[in-house]
Amino acid sequence: MVEDFKQTLERLRGKTDLLTKRYQALLQEKQVADMQNEELTALTNKQQQEINRLQQEVEYLKVVTTLNPNRNDVEKSRAFLSELVREIDKCISELKE
Question: How far is the CA of 84 from the CAs of 33, 81, 88, 89, in angstroms?
Answer without folding.
Answer: 74, 5, 6, 9
